[in-house]
Amino acid sequence: MLDIGFHQASGLHSYTPQSELRVVAVASQDNAGSGLETLWQICASLQRLGYPVVVLDGTAQETDDSPGLLHLLLQAPWNEGVNLNMGAMASSLAVIPSAKGFLRIIRAASRDETAPLHALLPYFRTYGIIVLHAPAATLGPLLTHTATIPLVVMGEGSAGVLSTYKSLKQIAVDTGLPCMVAALLRSGTVAERRKTQHALLTLQDCAERHLGGPVRTTTIATQNAQDVQRLALQLLENAGTISESLTALPPCNMTEAPAHFARSH
C-alpha cells in the first residue's frame, strides 16, 4: 500500500515531512497517446533518481468508483496524512484523478486571492515531487504564483505544431510563464530528425512573432533512456516549489473518516 502520509519512499526523507515540495507541470494534448507514454517515462526516471513522485491527473475525472483529489480536498489533512490506498506494488507510480479537484482549487484561489497550489502541500508533503498533468487551460490558473516552467510534448505534423502553439499561448496569457517543448523521435532517422527540426523552427518562429519571446525546445528519442533522463533533469531544473511557510493548514474536522481509493500506473 502507498499512502499519502508515509509511503515506502519516505525512508529517503527520514520520515520527515518536507517543508518544500517540487512542482513539475506537463500539459496534456488532445492526442494523448505519445504524451502519456513520455509522462510515464519521465516519472519513472525521477523515481529512479530517488524522488517520491505523485501524479495529479487533470485529464481524469474523480467519481465515487474512482475517487481522487476532490475527495482528499473535502477532508482534513491529518498530521500523518490522509491514507491513499493505491492497491498496487509499492514501487508503482501514484496517479490520482484530479480534474474536479483542480477546478475546486482554482475557484477557491480566485475567491480568496491566494496561490492555488499551496492548498496541496498538507496532503502531499511527504512526496518529493508533484507532477501536474492537465490541459493548458487548467495548468495556467494553477501555476500562478509559481516559477514552474511547464513541459509541452509536441505531436506530429502541422496539427502537433498548432496544438502546441495553442498550449503555449494559453499558459502565457494566464501566467506569463514560458514553456519548454519536447518533440519526440520514434525512429531516429535523418529524415525524421530533419522533419522534426523544421516543425520546431516553425513553432519557435510563431512564438517569437505572436507571443513576444523565444520558446525553449528539445528533441527526445523515446527509446533512449539517457534522453528521457535528460528531460527529467531539465524538468527538475524548471520545477517550482510549494513552501510550508506560505501554506496554512486547513482546520481539522475529526468527524470525517479518511477515504481510500486505488489507482496506479
Textual characterization of the structure:
By secondary structure, this protein is of the alpha/beta class. The chain has one domain (8-246): 3-Layer(aba) Sandwich (Rossmann fold), CATH 3.40.50. It contains eight helices and eight strands; from the N terminus they run E-H-E-H-E-H-H-E-H-E-H-E-H-E-H-E. Strands 1, 2, 3, 4, 5, 6, 7 and 8 form an eight-stranded mixed beta sheet that branches. Helix 2 links the parallel strand 2 (53-57) and strand 3 (94-97). Helix 5 (136-142) runs parallel beside helix 6. Residues 1-17, 86-91 and 245-264 have low confidence and may be disordered.
Please give a handful of descriptors for the protein shown.
16% strand, Rossmann fold, 8-stranded mixed sheet, alpha/beta, 8 helices, 8 strands, 265 residues, disordered C terminus
Q: TL;DR?
A:
The protein has 265 residues and is α/β, with parallel strands linked by helices. It has a single domain (8-246), classed as Rossmann fold. 38% of the residues lie in helices and 16% in strands.
- Count of domain modules: 1
- How many individual β-strands? 8
Helix content: 25-40%
Question: Helical segment tally?
Answer: 8
Lay out the secondary structure.
Blueprint: E1 20-27, H1 32-48, E2 53-57, H2 69-73, E3 94-97, H3 99-112, H4 121-124, E4 129-134, H5 136-142, E5 151-154, H6 157-175, E6 180-185, H7 190-210, E7 216-221, H8 225-237, E8 240-243
Parallel strand pairs: 1-4, 1-5, 2-3, 2-4, 5-6, 6-7
Antiparallel strand pairs: 1-8
Helix pairs in contact: 1-8, 5-6, 6-7
